[in-house]
Amino acid sequence: MSELLEKLLEQESRLQFAWFSHQRAWDLGVALKTAAEAEGASVAIDITLNGLTLFAFVLPGARGDNLEWVRRKKNSVTRYHHSTWYLANAYKAKGKNMYEGSGVDPKDYACHGGGFPLTVRGVGVVGSITVSGLPQEDDHRLIVEVLESFLDEGEKACAD
């Protein structure tokens, strides 16, 4: 497995929540919004728990197209329980794309960075954290950087 794929799997394993709630979704969404604004990024942000959107925000300059990317990235995280940046690179390593490799419809799924599994430790993937509007690697980076600072040390220390 490539170093990048290993790094992405490590992020998914480490950046998990000990617990999650509606309030935490709001706080995380605000943290993502604040970080995006600090970068001058025009993005759409979505946090979904068990199929229920708990936070959605579109910064000035983002377009309706970004909401369509959010929908498709969320579908991919929900189906595969991996970040969309991991999926993009895993299929690339196999020499195919997600649509050829799994038969999913590109109208409903996207394997471009910016979708990340919302995972509760000991429970599993319970939703998704999605950003769209930056280059795909930067959409992923924004989520990871915010999770790095958002999760408390006790949560990150629980990683096996």
UniProtKB/TrEMBL annotation:
Source organism superkingdom: Bacteria
Pfam family name, one: HbpS-like
Gene3D superfamilies linked: Haem-degrading domain (3.30.450.150)
HAMAP family in alphabetical order: UPF0303
Similarity-based family: Belongs to the UPF0303 family.
Protein name: UPF0303 protein A3843_07910
Species of origin: Pseudovibrio exalbescens
